[in-house]
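Work package 3, deliverable 3.1, input record:
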Amino acid sequence: MTTIKQLLLIYIFFFFPSSLASIISGEDGYRLWLKYDRLNQQSITFTNYVPFAQSWYVGGHSATSKAISDELEYAFNGLFGKSHRVVQQNAKLVIVYGADATTLYPQHARQLSRLNDEGYLIKIVGQGQKQKVLVLANTDIGALYGSYALLRKIQTGTNKAALNLESQPQTDIRVLNHWDNPNRHVERGYSGQSIWNWHKLPTYIDQRYIDYARANASIGINGTVLNNVNANAIMLRPDYLKKVKALADTFRPYGVKVYLSVKFSSPQLLGGLDTSDPVKTKVQQWWKDKVAEIYQEIPDFGGFLVKANSEGQPGPGDYGRTHAEGANMLADALKPYGGIVMWRAFVYANEKNEERSKQAYSEFKPLDGQFRDNVLVQVKNGPIDFQPREPYSPLFGATPNTPMMMEFQITMEYLGFSTHFVYLGPMYEEVLKTDTYAKGQGSTVGKVVSGGVFPYKYTGMAGVSNIGMDRNWTGHIILQSNWFVFGRMAWQPDVSAEEVAQDWVKMTLSNNQKVVDSVTKLMMSSHETTVNYMTPLGLHHIMGTGHHYGPAPWVDNLGRADWTPVYYHRATKDGIGFNRSPSGVNSVAQYLSPYRELLSNPDTTPEKFLLWFHHLPWDYKIKSSGRSLWDELAHRYYLGVEQVANIGEQWNALEGLIAESQFRQVQMSNLIHLQEAKWWRDACMLYFQSLSGKPIPDDLAKPQHDLKYYQSLTFPYAPGQGH
Ligand code: BDP
């Protein structure tokens, strides 16, 4: 006889989703790459490093030196199960900075003097029992970075002999841009609410703020713009400045400075003035007073980020003034305190009737040299808007006298929100390694940004944050790697995306060789995969309207032509692509020779940008494959989906080698990813087919639904929109 209990068990077994039937335990992603899980006592890494963990010393008495000690104690207890802080004379690991470093280790003083304030040296000296590890720096922040670098070396199982390191950041300003609103909604955020709890600040300091600062410091990020570029003026109100101060105080020991996005019309909105015209004395005075008030609260405040005269935001253009006049007014107010202005070049105006990809260059190139020396112009990596793939913005390399600061998007607005498995390292790398030829060959975008081509006074890189209140911070475990790689590339623009991916996998998932090899491989091809099923061959801006979720290449009726997908792909029965060559809108003229000439001709244009720069007939022959353009497009859309299916399979093969919660989170996202990749493929194929009239090659699966079905889908609650 079957008892009721047995029946219940049968019911639970068969009818309950498996994820509910068991409690998933273990690492859930909160600890990011700072896990410090116990090393195997038999491992070389353990025996190599355990003596240092047992006997370490941190010099100095600053809050930062305490942060270093706290981190080491926590990390060593985790990694080795033991940790002993000792007095300097006996220590086997010595971390000292400033005068201590040069007095105690004069033999390294010269090398130290060549490093900037944030740089560090790691040395392994002596033999046998006398062997020591030294972390030396000019400042406590340098020592902090050196300590995190040492911990990374241990976490990634680096041979002790490879510990002789010298490193310093190649850009000055390495900031996250949070598009977070005061109501905690994150514009283009897919990881939950904003981590800033403005309501409970300034008194309540969430542990997340400290862990956020630790994570940033560990990858060299030294600043954060707390609020959305579509700024709310309230951030400058005295009560909000108190809240900002509380965050600044929390982050300070970790070398993370606070910046604010400001609304250009704040003098009117907050100050009750009747204008915000930057040449008016009363407006200038309002900003001076406001800045003085900020520095009263936050003596090391970083400065302002400004989105002006763009997508409805107010700006100097409202008064017939230039971007330089607007930026300079703010720069003058900040200058006495060492603050800077990051003025965004993401502007495109309707009135000008110029092709959108050309507008930022047309607007800013003529202003080169007109900005104060504490202004950086912040440019998105490509000339349009964070598309899955764009050529670099021609502003990089075009302004010898105005620092161009890179703006990458870390959040995945156009790359699958937080369910697609996409590592952005290769995309950042592709941009940074492209040659601008600004001063002959080798003038890569990375070099321009880090001041190696023109001697910019300030250099910087900004990343639009993907962080939210989700337990795992970024909504998807793999997407933590994009925060990580952004920091690493801002520090060192020519670091290899692959090396960084390996470090991240080892620190976040596992040191198991199979996991490291397999996940790194998947990560390295994941961006190309996404481009394949979203926007192959240089297509761009064919996503859903407003929320930007999923494909909608058919949209042709928005407020502005240059918001519609049809403006960008220009597909007709004769062909597809945007003619930006000299016979078209000639945006290639904004690039320097020989890149310009290369892009002018479809035969020499890299295939990845083919339809970005050229309008071509459907039977145009693709060089690399010999296929017709139509067949190649189909091939790539289908390949992309196959590649996503492969990500799922490869990931599943790692079950048991990765903590269960991490494993399951990615596994579930992979299912959504595959569905959405098919959606992109089928919707785009059917739509383009409706124009080309060409068949989907016989060997490829037919789309699941008809075009009307895809066109009928609506997503009023897709995350990340507006306010
Ligand atoms: C677009 C986003 C929009 C941002 C804008 C910007 O859709 O939410 O405000 O960029 O960067 O890509 O200012």
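The CA atoms of residues 34 and 215 lie 7 Å apart.
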